Every structure is written in C-alpha cells, then in structure tokens.
Automatic annotation (TrEMBL):
Molecular function per GO: hydrolase activity, hydrolyzing O-glycosyl compounds
InterPro entries: Dockerin_1_rpt (IPR002105), Dockerin_dom (IPR016134), Dockerin_dom_sf (IPR036439), EF_Hand_1_Ca_BS (IPR018247)
Signal peptide: 1-21
Domain of life: Bacteria
Keywords: Signal
Xref: PROSITE patterns: DOCKERIN (PS51766), EF_HAND_1 (PS00018)
Protein name: Dockerin domain-containing protein
Residues covered by the Dockerin domain: 405-471
GO aspect biological process, one term: polysaccharide catabolic process
Biological source species: Ruminococcus albus
Pfam families: Dockerin_1 (PF00404)
Length: 471
C-alpha cells in the first residue's frame, strides 16, 4: 500500500544547498517558513499546505490534511482533464454539493467517495473515467455517484483491487464496460436494479451471458422485507404498490395503513433494521407472522390485529420489542416474543392469545410501564413467561393501561405482578428500614387488618410460592 508522504521543503535549506553566491542573503530569507506537500494533485496542481483551503482558487476543491479529506463542491473540468491523482492511503472524497465534473480520477491507494451531494463524472476522451491502481480498494459509501465513459470504473494492473458499494446510488454508463478489472465487487445495503439477472464478483459486473454490463444502476436497500419484497429506495414510498405499507429510511419508520390479503403461515414482515418504529396509522387486520432482528417500537393511533399458525406470531430475536401507546391483538402458537428477546409495554392495550403460550421473553426481559396485567387473574411473573392461577404458562394474557386508582392486593409496587419484590418492600416496611407510601400500604395490607405486619408478608410469600393465591 502506498503510504501518505508529507514532504517538507524548507526554503532556508534549499538556499544553504545552492551556490555560495546566496550566502550573503538576509537571515529572514534563510529562515523562511516550510511548506507541506501532499501526495495529491488536482488538475496537475500539487496540493500543499499553502493552497489546500482552495486548491484551484475557484471554491470547488478543498483538502484537509488532518482528516485526509478532499471536499468537492461545484462544477469543473473539460476534455480529458486529470481532475484527481492521489497516492494518499485512506483518502476520503466528500461531495457536499451537486457537482458536475468532466475528466478522470486516478486512485493509487485506498479511497472512499461519500457525501450528501451528487457527483456526476464524465469522460469519453480517454479510456477510463475512474481508475484504481496498485493493491487498492475503492469504497462508495452513503453517496450518489453517476459515472460515464468508455470504461467508467476500471481496475488497472495485476495487483488485487476491490470495489465496495455501501448504502449508495451508483449509476454507470459505459461504451465498452461499466465496472471491470476488480477482484472483488461487494454490495452492502444495496441492490442492483439494472441489468436484470446481473452477475457480479470477481472481474466486475456482468450480464447473465457473462459479458460486461455497460449500463448499471445500484440503489440503497434497507434490510426490511414486506411480504417477501425487499424495501429499496425505489419502492419505499409504496412498498407493495397498494398504498398499505411505506418506509421512511431517514427516520426508520415503517407505516402500515391498511389490510392486505395474506396467508397466515407466510412471513409478513422481516426486519433487520436497528431502532425500527412500526407506525399503526389505521385500524388494521392482517394474517402472517413478523420476525424482528433489531430493536423495534410498535406505536400509532390505529390498532393491529394479527394472527398466524406459525410458531411465533410476533417474534423478536435477540432484540427489544416495545409496545408504546399501542393497541395490538396477536394470536399464534406463541403470540408475542422469544426466549432471546425482551418485551416492554408502555401505556398499551395488548391481547396475546397462544395455542401453546401467550408470551415469551428471556430471563429478566419483561417490563411494564404505565401498564398492568389484567388477565389472567391472579397472574405470576415467571422467568420466561406469565403463569396463571394453576401455575401453568398462560395461553391468554391481557395487558391494559394502568389506572392510578386500580391496584391488586399484594402488588405493592403496582407493576401488575405479585413477586419477590413485593415481599421485599413489605418486609422493609415492617422492619422499619424503608416505609411504604400510603398507596403502597393499602396494597400491602392483604388481610385488610388496617396495618401492615408479618401476617401480610406471610400471605404475599405464600402467593409467590404458589401455596395459597391471593384473590
């Protein structure tokens, strides 16, 4: 790999090495300040510490050596201009405004093209538009790039060269090929929409007959599938083409506004999106199952009724599922959850009906905020699920919004469950270590004697152990 070299040329040193005829120059000339040069040229202008703030004095190109970032903002170039020639390992080309350039880019070390602006680069006056040399990788990340030419993007030489496209728009128009000469072509959070039946990998991007593809279009995709349809930049405004599902990638919001015909044993939503929000816009009835691999919040002004005959109707694997001001009814062999996920209910109305079990969660992975279990009554919070009065996993669980005036005897902290926490709180009060508030005192006085004492602790403990349940 080429290593960034900063060449320091001291004017005073140059004078000392020159003819002794210059030895009589004033001392301030001999001590003139040093200029730093960088392995980067813009239209054959060597970038240095003196010109890097505005390399061509036109406001289009700026270089920041501390971050190795070349910023482009504006139009430039004409016939066969060598716009960029770089040997900087780790160079970032940041396109901050829409920029139309005519000419070539030469990268002799690892480079990333990124930025909020669209880069349009064109060159038909020499064989290539973007050339990658040596053992080098080109990354196009979070970018919008349009390249055209005879060979628009090409890897030169026998050394290993890679191209990575990550969450970007990339359009390539070539008269001979589009992307050629790379040992590896890798896409991350992207999909090729043109040509159809594309083949990519070692060598470049090909048509299905293994000829080089000349017109290529790559767009972002979002790790989200609706009814087996991958959500992309092209379809996110109306994923299924029926106005029922949309996705906002900037805010990671999946909106659902209506019903669709769907089989109960087929996957409806599959998500690997981190911090996804599912917005229930209207009252919705759906069939199918949901699989979530990233933290997800279900919320909205509408409601969701969903059923599946697959093992888990709404499954959250190794992530947190939050119902926040939501109204959801789910039915399946298991209605909601998994043994690897956590569930939180915030001010929500939830009905979970399972052929086997209503709710599943990993140990310690169940939480209620401004909500409470209203059925079964009484209920017990177990390690992985909710238990009914027979100490069996509950097949039906109903969670409602908590009312400040509503409480269950023995549920001292008001979380909807009677468990070891309630015993601890009551015991601390009886021992005088931490007194209960008036509201908690009323909940702890399970025998209705008018005071909280050892008898109440015994009754709560008997309930938790399943020996004698409180009614």
């Amino acid at each position: 790999m080429s290593i960034l070299k900063k060449r320091i040329v001291s004017f005073s040193t140059a004078v000392m090495l020159s003819s002794t005829a210059f030895s009589g120059l004033p001392a301030w000339v001999l001590k003139a300040g040093a200029v730093g040069f960088y392995d980067l040229k813009i239209d054959n202008v060597q970038v240095n510490s003196a010109n890097c703030k505005d390399i061509l004095e036109n406001g289009v190109f700026r270089y920041e050596p501390s971050t190795q970032t070349l910023t482009i903002n504006g139009d430039y170039g004409e016939k066969n201009t060598q716009i960029i020639e770089s040997e900087i390992d780790g160079l970032t080309v940041n396109v901050i405004g829409d920029s139309n350039l005519k000419g070539t880019f030469n990268f002799n070390a690892d480079t990333t093209i990124t930025g909020a602006g669209k880069l349009s680069l064109e060159n038909y006056d020499s064989p290539y538009t973007i050339a990658v040399h040596n053992e080098t990788s080109l990354t196009i990340e979070n970018a919008n790039v349009d390249v055209s030419g005879i060979y628009p993007i090409i890897g030169y030489g026998t050394d290993t060269k890679d191209i990575y496209v990550n969450n970007s728009f990339l359009t390539v128009h070539g008269t001979e090929s589009g992307v050629q000469g790379f040992d590896f072509v890798s896409l991350f959070k992207c999909v090729i929409t043109k040509p159809d039946d594309v083949v990519y990998g070692g060598g470049g991007i090909f048509n299905k007959d293994m000829s080089y593809a000349k017109d290529i279009r790559i767009i972002p995709s979002y790790d989200l599938w609706i009814d087996s349809t991958l959500v992309t930049a092209d379809n996110c405004d109306d994923i299924l083409g029926n106005g029922k599902f949309y996705y906002d990638p900037d805010h990671r919001v999946l909106g659902i506004s209506g019903n669709i015909e769907h089989e109960p044993d087929e996957e409806l939503i599959y998500s690997m999106v981190p911090d996804l929000t599912i917005d229930l816009v209207n009252d919705i009835e759906l069939q199918g199952y949901v699989v979530l691999y990233g933290d997800t919040v279900i919320t909205g002004d509408g409601s969701l009724t969903i059923g599946s005959n697959i093992e888990i109707c709404i499954c959250n694997e190794n992530c947190k599922l939050t119902f926040d001001n939501a109204k959801v009814s789910a039915a399946g062999n298991v209605a909601i959850g998994s043994l690897t996920g956590t569930i939180e209910f915030i001010n929500s109305d939830i009905t979970a009906t399972g052929n086997k079990i209503a709710l599943l969660f990993r140990e310690g992975g169940f939480n209620l905020t401004d909500s409470m279990v209203t059925e079964p009554t009484p209920s017990l919070l177990g390690t992985y699920t909710i238990y009914d009065s027979a100490s069996e996993p509950a097949a039906f669980v109903k969670i409602g919004k908590a009312k400040k005036s509503a409480y269950k005897l023995g549920d001292v902290n008001g979380d909807g469950f009677i468990n070891i926490t309630d015993i601890t709180l009551t015991a601390a009060h009886v021992k005088g270590k931490k007194l209960l508030t008036s509201e908690k005192l009323e909940r702890a006085d399970v025998n209705r004697s008018g005071s909280v004492n050892i008898s109440d602790i015994t009754l709560i403990a008997a309930h938790v152990k399943g020996k004698k349940l409180l009614v």
